[in-house]
From TrEMBL, chain A:
Membrane-spanning parts: 6-25, 64-84, 161-182, 194-216, 228-247, 284-307, 334-352
Subcellular location, principal: membrane
GO BP term (any one): transmembrane transport
Topological relation to the membrane, as annotated: Multi-pass membrane protein
Family as reported in the entry's similarity comment: Belongs to the binding-protein-dependent transport system permease family. MalFG subfamily.
Localization annotation: Cell membrane
One GO CC term, this protein: plasma membrane
Taxonomy of the source species: Archaea, Methanobacteriati, Methanobacteriota, Stenosarchaea group, Halobacteria
Record's protein name: Binding-protein-dependent transporters inner membrane component
Automatic annotation (TrEMBL), chain B:
Family: Belongs to the binding-protein-dependent transport system permease family.
UniProt domain ABC transmembrane type-1: residue ranges: 90-315
Main location, first listed in the record: membrane
Protein's cellular compartments: Cell membrane
A GO biological process held by the record: transmembrane transport
Name of the molecule in the record: Binding-protein-dependent transporters inner membrane component
Transmembrane domains' residue ranges: 27-52, 59-80, 92-116, 128-147, 193-216, 292-319
GO cellular component: plasma membrane
Coiled coil region boundaries: none
InterPro entries referenced in this protein's UniProt entry, alphabetically: MetI-like, MetI-like_sf, UgpAE/MalFG_permease
Keywords annotated in UniProt: Cell membrane, Membrane, Transmembrane, Transmembrane helix, Transport
Membrane topology field: Multi-pass membrane protein
Cell membrane as UniProt keyword: yes
């Protein structure tokens, strides 16, 4: 098996992974769009059942009441998110004034989002976007493309994306093979390492803050502060135990007979990985993708301690907006910034909800 | 995978191999090793280093790095035992863990039962919606909660309480049922504690709901039907069918979320930095404070080592009694 072959295989499986995430988003959207129709059918059936005497009116009413109760509960639980979304639309009008909890809908505007995109450091420092430029006959071939005109340089989102790509690359490169080995191979120390990982599953952010004092000293000693690459590796390290464990559990549920059958048909070891294991673990991989992404995307205390301002990722910028004044936060701007920061992840997360549920229920299987 | 194949120099390699404590069937170890090394160097090594710092009189990062600190044995730990702030912090941390755990369990079981009920239409969508908090960054949600708990007269909760007061007065309810608004959610000790617990519960319930729902769905319908045929009421069915099914998973989730609550840093830090007057400093905040604000690196390291020790105990309990590592030993 040449290295180019396996590289191509890797690229293919990466594409497949992205495709499966996109597929999940699409399936969710379709389900959401068709939901009203299914709801209408349900109502019609209930009416029919009552007319024909199959169900009593009281029986239907109980269902309606329970559903309303469930809905009310969901609304109460999601109230903070609803509140902050309305707040993000109210740039210019004062929050926390006499007019009530929510800002006046007639004053809704996108000013806060405009501020995030064109004035904050979200995309470019001070929102100085610059413009794309075609260069003819430069050093990079006949026609090349460059981003020009931004005098202040790229902003926090690029730092965040850089950290996350390091975290993802390192994380996946180590988690997937290890999960496979734990699930399918016997080797010396397997049980003990696995126990160790399980012990550390729940110790993510908390542990890094606890060791912050030591981390800072170590990083300074080795001259690793203010290094986005090392920070990305650090987040990957924190994500390894939990995600390896999660993916291992996922792979355990794939019958070994599939691989044996492929082997009998003449597939090589790497073929079975590519054709059997990876396709069947796709939902698990998607969940790991989300969690590893979140590990690199959300953390800010370590980042704030180790990085200098020009390298701050979005999470630190968000924290800085939140604590601009000691107890006052520019709510509308904060909300708009936070929504742009969190929404892409939240959407993917929402779409992959089924897989997340399956993945997270790993420990509660006995019952 | 090339690295797992033996190279040239077979005879020497064979001798080396027979001397090693593992055989060629152990090559799976090679797949695990990179992750282990990365994890150990960024997570385990700092813990050991932290322990080392806790044995020194380091006062700031420079004295650790530059070697200006001296080993003073367990003096930092001795100081902790007599430090009233340590006792306050430990007490409030345990109280926080206990109170939020109880509320979490009841809330999550309630939500899970409701969103798994036959009579609730569209429960799958509702379930998708209620676990959304898990997908947002902590700094975002926690800051939002701080905004809602604002001390201001027109903060969200104060406004809601004001409306409630108006409503109750219009019913001419007794004065005892009214709230004294505005409540300083972030400036009073127990008010702040209440705000912490509420936020912690909100952050952690999705995880519990997921686990309980999946346990509920594993209960065969026939079991419920059989109980119904036997004339068991809703309460009795809950006790005899539902409860045994979710007991294990709830215990498991409780230990895990308790471990996370114990390490809660962001909520107190963002809300009011463990205030007022250091009364609500959860253990990690306390350790962080000592290092960052008071330049007591050695003492801070000792505090954090104690904290890590407790979390380790939690996780050990989870593995031992919660069946967390089930599946490690099978096959």
């Amino acid at each position: 098996m040449s290295s180019r072959d396996s590289a191509a295989g890797l690229a293919a499986s990466a594409t497949a992974l992205v495709a499966s995430v996109v597929g999940m988003v699409r399936a969710k959207l379709v389900a959401l769009v068709t939901a009203p129709k299914r709801f209408a059918v349900m109502v019609q059936r209930a009416i029919y059942d009552v007319r024909t005497g199959k169900r009593s009116t009281w029986d239907v009413a109980k269902s309606v009441l329970m559903t309303l109760f469930g809905l009310a509960m969901v609304l109460v639980l999601l109230f903070p998110l609803f509140w902050i979304t309305t707040a993000s639309l109210a740039e210019g009008s004062r929050l926390f004034n006499t007019s009530g909890i929510f800002p006046d809908p007639s004053t809704y505007n996108l000013g806060a989002y405009r501020w995030v995109i064109f004035e904050s450091d979200f995309f470019f420092v001070d929102g100085d976007w610059g413009y794309p430029q075609l260069v003819l006959g430069g050093g990079d071939g006949l026609v090349s493309f460059r981003w020009a005109g931004t005098e202040t340089g790229p902003g926090a989102v690029f730092n965040s994306l850089y950290i996350v790509s390091v975290t993802l690359a390192a994380g996946f490169g180590m988690i997937v093979p290890a999960a496979y080995a734990f699930s399918r191979r016997q080797f010396v120390g397997r049980k003990r390492i696995l126990y160790g990982y399980v012990l550390f599953t729940q110790i993510g952010a908390g542990l890094s803050i606890a060791t912050l004092v030591a981390l800072y000293s170590l990083f300074s000693t080795y001259g690793l502060t203010n290094n986005l690459f090392v920070l990305g590796l650090f987040y990957a390290a924190g994500a390894i135990p939990f995600n390896t464990w999660l993916l291992k559990t996922y792979m355990d549920n794939i019958p070994v007979s599939y691989e044996e059958a492929a082997m009998v048909d003449g597939a090589s070891f790497l073929d079975t990985i590519r054709e059997v294991i990876l396709p069947l673990t796709k939902p698990g991989l998607a969940v790991v993708l989300i969690f590893v992404w979140l590990a690199g995307w959300n953390e800010f205390i370590i980042a704030q301690t180790l990085l200098r301002p020009e390298n701050y990722p979005l999470s630190v910028e968000l924290y800085n907006i939140a604590t601009e004044g000691r107890f006052s936060t520019p709510w509308t701007r904060f909300a708009a910034f936070a929504n742009l920061f969190a929404l892409p992840v939240a959407i993917v997360y929402f779409a992959a909800q089924r897989s997340v549920e399956d993945g997270l229920s790993f420990g509660g299987m006995e019952g | 995978m090339a690295s797992s194949q033996p190279g040239t120099g077979v005879s020497g390699l064979a001798r080396l191999r027979s001397a090693l404590p593992f055989s060629s069937r152990d090559w799976g170890l090679l797949l695990v090793a990179p992750g282990m090394i990365l994890f150990s160097s960024f997570m385990l090594y700092p813990i050991f280093y932290l322990f080392y710092i806790s044995l020194t009189d380091a006062t700031f990062a420079g004295s650790v790095i530059g070697g200006g600190a001296e080993l003073i044995g367990l003096a930092n730990y001795a100081q902790l035992i007599s430090d009233p702030q340590f006792r306050t912090s430990m007490g409030v941390t345990w109280l926080f863990v206990a109170v939020s755990l109880v509320v979490k369990v009841f809330l999550a079981v309630g939500i899970a039962l409701l969103l798994n009920h036959v009579r609730v239409a569209g429960k799958r969508y509702m379930r998708a919606a209620v676990i959304v908090p898990l997908g947002f960054p902590g700094i975002f949600t926690i800051t939002v909660w701080r905004g809602m708990f604002s001390d201001a007269r027109y903060g969200v909760f104060n406004t809601i309480l004001g409306r409630y007061n108006e409503f109750m007065s219009s019913l001419s309810a007794p004065q005892a049922l009214l709230f004294d608004v505005p409540i300083g959610f972030l400036s009073g000790r127990w008010e702040a504690f209440f705000a912490y617990v509420t936020t912690e519960v909100w952050l952690a319930y999705p995880f519990m709901v997921i686990i309980i729902v999946s346990a509920l769905q594993d209960v065969p319908k026939s079991l419920h039907e059989a109980a119904m045929v036997d004339g068991a009421g809703a309460l009795q069915r809950f006790r005899t069918v539902t409860l045994p099914a979710i007991k294990g998973p709830v215990l498991f989730a409780s230990i895990l979320t308790a471990a996370t609550s114990f390490q809660q840093f962001l909520i107190p830090w963002v809300f009011n930095q463990g205030g007022p007057s250091r009364q609500n400093e959860l253990i990690i905040v306390y350790g962080y404070r000592e290092a960052i604000t008071f330049n007591q690196f050695g003492l801070s390291a000792a505090i954090l080592i104690v904290g890590i020790g407790f979390v380790g105990l939690f996780m050990y309990a989870a593995v031992r009694y919660g069946g967390l590592a089930e599946g490690v030993g099978d096959e």
